[in-house]
Amino acid sequence: MKVRRSLRALKAKDGAQVVKRGKRVYVLNRKNPRLQARQG
C-alpha cells in the first residue's frame, strides 16, 4: 500500500472502494490490490 497525495486516479479504477478510518482515507481494491493507497 502506497501513501499518496491524491487518490483521485485510484478512486476511478474498477473495484475501488473509498474508506475513511479516523483521519486517514484509504482506497481499497480487491480486484487489483496493487492499486491500494492511503492518504493522511
From TrEMBL:
Q: Tell me a GO cellular component.
A: ribosome
Arranged from A to Z, the UniProt key words for this protein are:
Ribonucleoprotein, Ribosomal protein
Indicate whether Ribonucleoprotein appears among the record's keywords: yes
Organism superkingdom: Bacteria
Record carries keyword Ribonucleoprotein: yes
Which InterPro entries does this one have? Ribosomal_bL36, Ribosomal_bL36_sp, Ribosomal_L36_bact
Q: Which family does it belong to?
A: Belongs to the bacterial ribosomal protein bL36 family.
Which PANTHER family would you find in this protein's record? 50S RIBOSOMAL PROTEIN L36 2, LARGE RIBOSOMAL SUBUNIT PROTEIN BL36B
Protein's UniProt name: Large ribosomal subunit protein bL36
What is the source species?
A: Kribbella orskensis
